Amino acid sequence: MIHVLHTEWSDGWGGQEIRIINEMLAVQKQGVVVYLACRENSVIKEKALEKGIKVFTLPFKGNTDLLTLIKIIRIIKNYNIDIVNTHSGKDTWVGGIAAKLSGAKFIRTRHLSNRIRTSRLNFINELSDFIFTTGESIREDMIKFNRIKPDKIQSIPTGVDIEKFNPDKYDRTQCRVQYGLNEDDIVIGTVAVLRRFKRHDRFLRMVKYLNDHNPNKKIKVLLVGDGPQRKNLEIMVNDLGLEDKVSMLGHVDNVPELLCALDIFVLTSDSGEGVPQSVMQALLMHTAVIATNAGSTADLYQKDNFMLINKDDEKQLNEACTRMIRDERLRKYYAKKSRDFIAEHYSQAIMTENIIKVYSNLIHED
């Protein structure tokens, strides 16, 4: 039986933290014993406890937090930890070093596409026994710029529950009623943590453009997610005069129902993405998708299954959304082609199988 300790420094709740919890639960079902070390006031702590995962709260004050390092070593020894899997910068330093000092294997998961500092002093990733990335572009970047050996790093995108995100299980009319939508509304949505790199400012300017240039279309917009940019975006909605068009829903739990209610899903990120979970989920729900080519989003593009546009071109974004708004046949074309490739290559089962294979190889390589 393999024992794995995951570490996460972040207090927030977004795609990275959701991936960690879902991954832990998935491998747990296959017999892996999982633990989480995180900060006291983090959202991931509460989510893990809700799922019955054993949690250790530690300070994670910085890369050289000696107290946290010592406590992780104790956890490794007391709970017979075989693998320490770190996720963010600060916990990767203390968690990785603790693993090395204790004789446990050290896996580093890199979730974001932002380039890691190339300095020789930033050597912690090179110390890892293995690295998971959430997209192929991140893997290639770390091999090229961070001196990672190709056989020590693998892209394992976040797997999606293809049964949960199955449009056949949901009634579109009921889902639209749930959000106060009429059948003849054209509904645009986005699901993302409200952080700068998600570029909700561009999303809202796009909505303004669509509203101004399509006065005869009944456009409704659902902006889903919470985060540090919420107040700024609320102000922007008011400044653009979009109060009657845009509903800021905050965090929602019933994501499949929400996606079922949409006509068009839009992702406007300009950086930071691995393989975005929200795009995978929307594609699985037979939703027409427009997404910027940020991070490893292009990994999901296969045979015209969605519109992939330049991450820095607002004009292209406006034009793509205008085409979708005005052409119902185009929306149906993309919706029909969206699911198959994702279901075949990005299921939770495939993710879990790949992760456990790495676990087993590491444990038995000595």
Please provide a written account of the structure.
The protein has 2 domains: about 5-160 and about 345-365, Rossmann fold, CATH 3.40.50.2000; about 165-345, Glycogen Phosphorylase B (Rossmann fold), CATH 3.40.50. The mean pLDDT is about 95. With about 375 residues, the chain is of the alpha/beta class. It has helices at about 15-30, 45-50, 65-80, 90-100, 125, 135-145, 170-180, 200-215, 230-240, 255-260, 275-285, 315-325, 330-335, 340-345, 350-365, and strands spanning about 5-10, 35-40, 55, 85, 105-110, 130-135, 155, 185-190, 220-225, 245-250, 265, 290, 305-310. The strands form 2 sheets. A 7-stranded parallel β-sheet has the order 3-2-1-4-5-6-7, with helices on both faces. Strands 10-9-8-11-12-13 form a 6-stranded parallel β-sheet, with helices on both faces. Helix content is about 45%, strand content about 15%. Helix 1 links the parallel strand 1 (about 5-10) and strand 2 (about 35-40). The radius of gyration is 21 Å and the shape is elongated. The longest helix is centred in the C-terminal third of the chain and has 17 residues, at about 350-365. Helix 3 packs across helix 4 (about 90-100), helix 7 crosses helix 10 and helix 8 packs across helix 12.
